[in-house]
Amino acid sequence: IWPLDKDAFDVSDVDHAATDFPELNFIVEHVGLPRIEDFCFMATQEPNVYAGLSVVIGGLMHARPKFFAKVMGELLFWVGEDKMTFGSDYGIWEPKWQIEGFVDWDYPSDEFSDYPRVTTATKKKILGLNAAKLYGIEVPAEFQLPSDAGTPGARDDSVGVSPDSPAASLA
User: Fold this and answer.
1) Which of 8, 15, 88, 140 could hold 42 in an S-S bridge, CB 3.0 to 4.6 Å?
2) Is-above-0.90 flag for pTM?
3) Which residues contact 7 (CB under 8 A, 6 or more apart)?
């Protein structure tokens, strides 16, 4: 992949494909980094585009904790916890430390107080419940969320931005 070409990370091709093929779902791994803003705006308007967190968790959570908090905050604000899926880039890193780190993670300071809070339900959705719903995998009752925690999102549930999303007024 060397030398990296920033243009290779342009998400506009996904934007066009998601619009033209609404019956297909698109998981954009690495969430379009370094084009996070482009990805967030695109995923907000395309109900069939999901944020895949490969490299985001493994590459940023420990090495760049404030940048990781900003990326997660932007994703949670624009895209929402129901359209985010865990990815480990298993070929690069073993996933155990990433999962354990994310389970224990919270924003590092009050500097991030304007972003949506990360709850246990948020983490469960991201770590597997969203993917299970997206792929039609039945989750055993003991691993499902309590009814008051909401339900994981799926393509069939959305027609754009959820009315409950902070970004709803911007869509």
Assistant:
1) 15
2) no
3) none
